[in-house]
Amino acid sequence: MTSTFDPRHVRRAFARAASTYTAAAALQSEAEARLLESLDYLGEQVPKVVLDVGAGPGHASAAIKKRWPKAQVIALDQAMPMLRQARKAAGWWKPFTQVCADARALPVADGSVDVIFSNLCLQWVEDLPAVFAGFRRALRPGGLLLCSTFGPETLIELREAFAQTDPAPHVSRFPPIAQFGDALLMSGFRDPVLDRDLFTLTYNDLPALMRELRAMGATNALSNRRATLTGRGRFAAASAAYEPLRRPDGTLPSSWEVIYAHAWAPAPGAPIREHGHEVASVPVSAIPIRRRID
């Protein structure tokens, strides 16, 4: 089966963006702050082990370590240059562990993690049920999963502008909220709750948007992307297609949809739905979904 994403391209893009990511990723930082608020679901519980999957430069790991100084916090990322940035965020006074690994194959023992935190990482994996099954394996029974991903309205203006000028894809198609929730249920997580935020960022022109995407590592990682660089003619045509969206203040809008989820690892022996057999009996329509617009 052909992979939707080129994992080597994803890893290289984030490795190149390690030094520029923090300055460019204002939206990611806002989503991270909102996801960190969800740690309040633990109440007075103090976890022993917290795994930050797709930790990037380690800001969330540092915040978690500050919140729970006695917890073992593990920052996991597949891009080694990102982990070098995370090492700086850790500091010598409240250090956390850095591990270079793939979210699709967590190098931790079964039932060894109390909390898995993953901010805007899962949009780069295509088999969400498999990844969630790995998360469930790593979590102890009753452990908490907090995660976020981009939804299908993300960069919709950019996707449609390029679609008018080039049959080759330029922007990933991200899973809708129902698919995200269904993947949690398929993996056996219990009591999932999903939130959805819609953000609009603005840019002076299309080149400014593209520069920011490169600086945060969010380049075209689709396996069927065009093998050559986008030519000047196609880029100019895409810019012209984007132009009718220009706002009265002179800026171009860019939509970003962020989906958040929290769910709990089930008791030992709870089944997973596999091979088309319905094991999870809760319909996706029953998952609470909240929506905010910024």
From TrEMBL:
Pathway the protein takes part in: Cofactor biosynthesis; biotin biosynthesis
Molecular function GO labels: carboxyl-O-methyltransferase activity; malonyl-CoA methyltransferase activity; S-adenosylmethionine-dependent methyltransferase activity
GO biological process: biotin biosynthetic process; methylation
Pfam families in the record: Methyltransf_11
Reaction catalyzed: malonyl-[ACP] + S-adenosyl-L-methionine = malonyl-[ACP] methyl ester + S-adenosyl-L-homocysteine
Alphabetically ordered keywords of this record: Biotin biosynthesis, Methyltransferase, S-adenosyl-L-methionine, Transferase
InterPro entries: BioC, Malonyl-ACP_OMT, Methyltransf_11, SAM-dependent_MTases_sf
UniProt keyword Methyltransferase present: yes
EC number in record: 2.1.1.197
CDD domains for this protein: AdoMet_MTases (cd02440)
Domain Methyltransferase type: start-end pairs: 51-147
The protein's enzyme class: transferase
Its biological purpose: Converts the free carboxyl group of a malonyl-thioester to its methyl ester by transfer of a methyl group from S-adenosyl-L-methionine (SAM). It allows to synthesize pimeloyl-ACP via the fatty acid synthetic pathway.
Similarity section: Belongs to the methyltransferase superfamily.
Protein name: Malonyl-[acyl-carrier protein] O-methyltransferase
